[in-house]
Amino acid sequence: xxxxxxxxxxxxxxxxxxxxxxxxxxxxxxxxxxxxxxxxxxxxxxxxxxxxxxxxxxxxxxxxxxxxxxxxxxxxxxxxxxxxxxxxxxxxxxxxxxxxxxxxxxxxxxxxxxxxxxxxxxxxxxxxxxxxxxxxxxxxxxxxxxxxxxxxxxxxxxxxxxxxxxx
Length: 167
What we know:
This protein is an all-alpha fold and 167 residues long. The chain is built from 5 helices and no strands. It is elongated.
């Protein structure tokens, strides 16, 4: 594996950790609004992002490459509505997708077949992530914050869990 690809994978690992911070910040906003189900949704999302980072960590180690951690930007901590928070999360996932595609392009250019195969999982994951956020945003646009549907959605999200598969 070329050093440039290894460095880019390290950058993505750090971005996945940043993503966890983004979702924890949104969870904190939700908790502050007494929307515990929505907070749980984003806490689970943060766990998934940490899992993604560890998947990259293991892959780099398995390939004999050194993992390097870096600092990160401060995530947004203030939102005007749950809809705005989900729209921000959706935009963030679109950025993750763009970054994964870039990594895939680098791996293809380098003819790094193991990395191409490894990144396929992330590409599939991003399709699911974007679809999920798009669907939730559409639901939130159809319901009013004070409606029973909003609180039913909050209750539904309170049941969400994450059980990481083996890395």
